[in-house]
Design a protein that fits this description.
There is one protein chain. This protein is an alpha+beta fold and 162 residues long. It folds into 2 domains: 124 residues, no CATH class; 28 residues, no CATH class. Helix content is 47%, strand content 14%. The chain contains 7 helices and 6 strands; from the N terminus they run ββββααααααββα. A two-stranded antiparallel sheet has the order 1-2. α3 packs across α4. The longest helix has 15 residues. It is elongated, with a radius of gyration of 24 Å. It starts with a strand and ends in a 5-residue tail after the last helix. About 7% of the residues have low confidence.
Length: 162
């Protein structure tokens, strides 16, 4: 007997074993052994599929990584509202680049390696930072200096403007 595991949020997941059924005051209940391991196996299977991920699969993977829609949207270079729409359209496939990035991020998540995720988080932060002024010094080779006020630096070092 198989169990249709709809609690995963995915319509196509069935369990052959690893679960027990029991009676509760509210009807039939199901207990799943090692849910965390099952979810990792589902996630690995999803990213190995040779087809684009759909909105339901996106939501499953995002929640497994415990990311908000806002944070994942920033990592894959889209707006939170766009990601929300992708998740809402459960059967519709994600666009290519975002979908590929999601696979890479989740793959890294499964391996407990945060380097790519950290880099993408920093890149997402770039969208929220306004461009600033940069000063460079030739001491010991050209290097940038942190100078919050370029006008102050000009006066202090007598840098001609223009």
């Amino acid at each position: 007997m198989t169990y249709h595991y709809t609690e995963s949020g995915l319509d196509n997941i069935y369990l052959l074993d690893g679960y027990t059924t029991h009676k509760t005051p509210y009807g039939k209940g199901v207990s799943i052994q090692n849910t965390e391991g099952l979810h990792k196996a589902i996630g690995k299977w999803l990213i190995a599929q040779p087809r684009p991920l759909n909105g339901a699969e996106l939501r499953f993977i995002r929640t497994e990584m415990e990311l908000t829609q806002r944070s994942l949207a920033g990592m894959i270079g889209t707006e939170e509202q766009t990601l929300r729409l992708w998740e809402k359209n459960r059967a519709k496939f994600m666009p290519g680049t975002a979908e590929r990035l999601l696979r890479v991020i989740y793959s890294e998540f499964l391996g407990n390696n945060v380097h790519i995720k950290r880099m993408l988080e920093k890149l997402a932060d770039l969208d929220r930072v306004e461009g600033g002024k940069a000063c460079f010094t030739k001491k010991n080779g050209w290097k940038p200096q942190n100078v919050p006020d370029l006008e102050h630096a000009r006066l202090k070092r007598s840098i001609p403007s223009g």
